[in-house]
Design a protein that fits this description.
By secondary structure, the chain is mainly alpha-helical.
Length: 125
């Protein structure tokens, strides 16, 4: 029984970070590469990659390779439901909260193929 709650605790920890929650929200709309997330979040690439690693280790995100591009997406659509529930709970205790909308593509300054006609992306690996 202890192992069951350990697993639950680990996945809960992945949700317990503002940047990871925003990443999950962004990925609930569409898959994205690291540079796309970096520009939307206005964070360094290494930091975004670190947070994606935590989400991947928790089984919340998957990767898809397309040539040199690596795209991240939700591993299970139920993660979007958990995020929605968390947002509703937070709004219940603080109705003045406002969530940023997910930006539409193209995102200004993002060099990824979805935002720019370039053939490669700065974060391809």
């Amino acid at each position: 029984m202890e192992e069951t709650y350990e697993a639950l605790s680990e996945i809960s920890k992945a949700f317990a970070h503002p940047t990871r929650l925003r990443i999950l929200e962004l990925l609930s709309v569409d898959e994205a590469c690291v540079c796309h997330l970096t520009h939307i979040l206005d964070k360094r690439q290494a930091y975004v990659s670190q947070q994606l690693g935590v989400l991947r280790d928790a089984g919340l995100v998957d990767v898809r390779r397309d040539g040199q591009m690596i795209y991240y997406r939700l591993a299970d659509a139920r993660a979007a439901g958990v995020l929605s529930l968390l947002k509703d709970l937070a709004l219940g205790s603080n109705p003045k909260l406002r969530y940023d909308p997910v930006p539409r593509v193209p995102v200004a300054g993002c060099p990824c193929p979805r935002c720019n006609e370039a053939d490669t992306c700065c974060c391809a690996s």
